[in-house]
Structure prediction request, 264 residues.
Amino acid sequence: MKDRYIIKCPECGSYHVKKHQSNILRFKCLNCKNTFALNRPLPNHEGQSKRIPYIKKARIVADIKLGISERDIIERYNVSKKTIYRIQNHFETRKNIFVFRVDYDNLDYIRDEVENGRLRQGWDYEDLRRGFDRFRESYMKVEPDVSLDEIEKRFNILKIMLVIKKGDYVIVPKYEGEHTFMICQVSDGYDFDDDKEYRHSIGVENPKVYYSVFKSIEEAELDYSYDVQIVNEILRTTKSFYPALSIVEPKSYFYRLVKKLYGR
Prediction:
């Protein structure tokens, strides 16, 4: 089929035939009714601008906060100056949703700290605001055998904490066990505490825990929520949420579902 391409919906997995007739890389799924940008240009349209994954946008904003020069950001991420300004504005004005994977061997401590208004994260050898070089030096003093690539990978994951701001949301999977998760709202941005076990942290408030498995029929009848089941399944199966820190794509079905569920 000339100028027609098979597209798989990233949300529901259904397939569609798209006729390419414009330079806008978007399509609307006829099954789940959501609209998506494509991950890459269609065949013979490679010259068009590519969709930038939201996690990459978050890293761009983090680099801005770290004082990385505009020229270096343009070269590192292959984006235009106009795109950088647009991404920065989106992060400053939109309420984002982040997914935290914490140390599940020390959940009692994590939960106690959440009750005290702080959500904590590990790999805590240096304040992220001091930049990658200081992070690398401090990391290698403690773990000299870790490769530079591994340190850089961990820094790139953690530096997303720098873009978290008051009013954003955070989800912690398996907060009270395998089939649970917690949603809270951010009350304060990133900080580093030298005297704490997990020193990277953000301020949080109003934590709510959700359960998708119940101990009795009575509990299920009282507390069952289809939305909770879907959120838990997406957290459990979506690979983009596997790192210690990730971000939810705005306008996605999952984003809307979490906002609806938390009700704030």
In short: Residues 45 and 69 are 31 Å apart (CA to CA). Residues 81-93 form the longest helix (13 residues).
